[in-house]
Design goal:
Length: 624
């Protein structure tokens, strides 16, 4: 991971696509800039009434859970450094059907969450300028409900439009804006932390005993952890920008780890500072489950009016960075879908200034309309559920790759066991344990016969899940022991001799040859043959404890999902159903029109014949 050994140079096609634009610092700015804002400015105040001072511990627990999934992203991003993130990993290791679920999760994580942050930002603007709300917000719901955002939000829609225009101007401009605003945001967060501890005036009384620290008990910690998960959304955003990064095999794992560590550290310190300055017993302390607090209100309670205004102005000025960073990977994701024929190939067309113009325009228009119209009071929980589900797709993809299923399915029995664990055993065990036993127990409800029954059944399913993971571990060990020769030990001519065109066409498990070109692009542009063939290649970061760590991440993610209401699950199911309906309609339309042989235009090249000639890719080592 921290080796100084230089990885293999990228091929010419990757250089044309990425231009070597993003360094490690740039990727850290993208990751930290997309995570820290919503966590410190919004969630620290919302979680405090739920968990009390122990909300700081919730940040640490949430970071630990995310770290388990982050390890999978760190290895997969080094193995598949191309646009698409979870979608690309699932497409390669699990198949196109699972990849659609990954793409839907990424759209929730980026596009929809960015629209929600834009509406949150407009709420802060209206708080500073109340008269602006009368002009820029047209209600269509209950006007008496202050917590309801059922109104046409022209202020938030304008911000979303501005972010789309910035991306249309070119990636270099977007990078400079992101870097500047991220540095300014970190400076603002450090100011809030230092000013908060200074305003607290010594050791806060909330930490005098375990009773005051855990004011809401274990249930408060569990609830707070599930709420704070949104504060870490974005640590995997750097994966979507992998095709534009320099030396992705080294920089991407470091950027993911640095983003998660930086976000956890800043958010935890900010939560401690906020807990120290909230005035208990004050009529405006918001020490209740229904009324969140904030740094602005806490500073005002302490009489630090200048700090209050500094926090308000800083948040309004810098929170738009989260919206910009949420929009940036969406055209990249749509381009990956277009290369595979899942959506129109117009999304793959680039302008001379290295911008997916059609993707930016189409995504921009749709997200502007969503930001303008859709109330996000309900969708926040749905977004969290979708992100957790996307994490599970990536964890399953890593296990599948370690089983030897990268590029095509070669281990059918182990694949069935993996599907059984991810789709049946782990979710059933997690939901039965939490909904039927752990949840009522933590909420001090009666532990009656039904709760005991749920506990017994849940533990039985958990035991079966552990046995399934053990079987997967044995399969991975068996495969590792059977792999003695690495590409580094074999001459290139022998590798190319072993490769057959039929092997390439076999990678698409759906029977649709449109996916073959995508894997050719991944392999040819990134020279990924060594990592996928040689599991002992020390040049690529390897996640520890596979399959135990990603399997544990899958179970814990389902456990967090179980804490949300059933109505949120129904909304999520409706969104995924809509996505799959569109997917099947698009596939049927593609088959009907006979465009399976359409060219992928993901890379701008002056020589069209060279760009669209698939035999050019066959001169390079490919996935087998």
């Amino acid at each position: 991971f921290f080796s100084e050994e230089e990885s293999e140079s990228s091929s010419s096609s990757q250089k044309k696509e990425s231009g070597g634009q993003l360094s490690l610092f740039d990727l850290l700015c993208i990751g930290i800039g997309g995570t820290v804002g919503s966590g410190v400015f919004v969630l620290t105040g919302e979680v405090y009434p739920k968990a009390g001072p122990s909300a700081a511990l919730c940040w640490i627990i949430g970071a630990g859970v995310c770290l388990l999934s982050a390890l999978s992203y760190m290895e997969l991003s080094a193995r598949v450094p191309t646009k698409g993130s979870t979608y690309a990993y699932a497409y390669h290791a699990l198949g196109e059907f699972a990849a659609v679920a990954g793409a839907t999760s990424l759209t929730l994580e980026y596009g929809l969450s960015g629209a929600g942050v834009a509406r949150s930002w407009s709420g802060k603007v209206f708080g500073i300028f109340p008269s602006a709300k009368k002009v820029l917000a047209v209600p269509y719901g209950d006007d008496d409900d202050d917590d309801d955002d059922r109104y046409l939000d022209f202020c938030a829609a304008g911000l979303q439009l501005l972010c789309a225009l910035v991306c249309l101007r070119g990636f270099n401009l977007s990078k400079r804006v992101v870097n500047f605003m991220t540095v300014a945001k970190v400076a603002l967060v450090l100011f809030l932390i230092v000013a908060g501890f200074a305003a607290a005036g010594g050791r806060p009384r909330d930490f005098d005993s375990s009773g005051t620290f855990f004011a809401k008990g274990a249930s408060g910690v569990a609830t707070g952890t599930s709420l704070l998960f949104f504060g870490f959304i974005g640590f995997d955003e750097v994966c979507c920008m992998a095709a534009r990064s320099k030396d992705p095999r080294k920089t991407l794992p470091r950027a993911i780890a640095g983003t998660l560590f930086g976000a956890a550290l800043l958010s935890t310190l900010a939560q401690l500072a906020l807990a120290g300055i909230v005035v208990a017993g004050d009529s405006d302390s918001n020490d209740s489950d229904s009324e969140p607090t904030s740094f602005e209100k806490a500073f005002r309670q302490r009489g630090w009016i200048w700090a209050k205004y500094a926090a308000e102005v800083g948040e309004v000025a810098l929170l738009p960075l989260v919206v910009l960073l949420s929009f940036m990977p969406q055209p990249e994701l749509m381009a990956a879908l277009g290369c595979d024929g899942v959506v129109s190939r117009r999304f793959t067309h680039k302008s001379p200034n290295d911008v997916y113009v059609f993707g930016c325009v189409a995504c921009g228009v749709i997200l502007v309309v969503i930001t303008l119209v859709v109330p996000f009071a309900v969708l926040w929980n749905v977004i969290n559920l979708g992100v957790l589900l996307g994490f599970n797709v990536s964890n399953a993809a890593l296990i599948s790759v370690r089983l030897g299923n990268g590029g095509r399915r070669t281990n059918q029995e182990a694949s069935l066991v993996l599907n059984l664990y991810v789709c049946v055993l782990a979710p059933l065990a997690a939901y039965l344990l939490w909904k039927g036993a752990l949840g009522p127990l933590l909420e001090n409800q009666d532990f009656d016969f039904s709760a005991r029954a749920f506990l017994v059944v849940g533990l039985a399913l958990f035991t079966a899940a552990c046995l399934a993971v053990k079987h997967l571990a044995n399969e991975i060990d068996r495969r590792r022991q059977g792999t003695k020769t690495t590409p580094r030990d074999r001459p290139r001519e022998e590798e190319e001799k072993d490769l057959d065109v039929d092997d390439v066409t076999a990678v698409d498990r759906t029977g649709d040859r449109t996916g073959d070109r995508r894997l050719l692009e991944i392999a040819a542009s990134s020279e990924l043959h060594a990592p996928f063939i040689d599991d002992d290649d020390d040049r690529t970061f390897r996640a520890p404890g596979v399959p135990y760590v990603p399997a544990a991440a899958v179970f814990l993610n389902f456990l967090l999902m179980a804490q949300y209401k059933w109505i949120d699950h129904l909304y999520l199911l409706a969104l995924y159903g809509t996505a799959y309906a569109g997917y099947f309609a698009a596939k049927q339309s593609t088959l009907t029109r006979g465009k399976l042989g359409a060219k992928c235009d993901c890379v701008v090249d002056d020589d069209d014949d060279e760009r669209n000639d698939p035999t050019d890719s066959l001169d390079r080592p490919l996935l087998t």
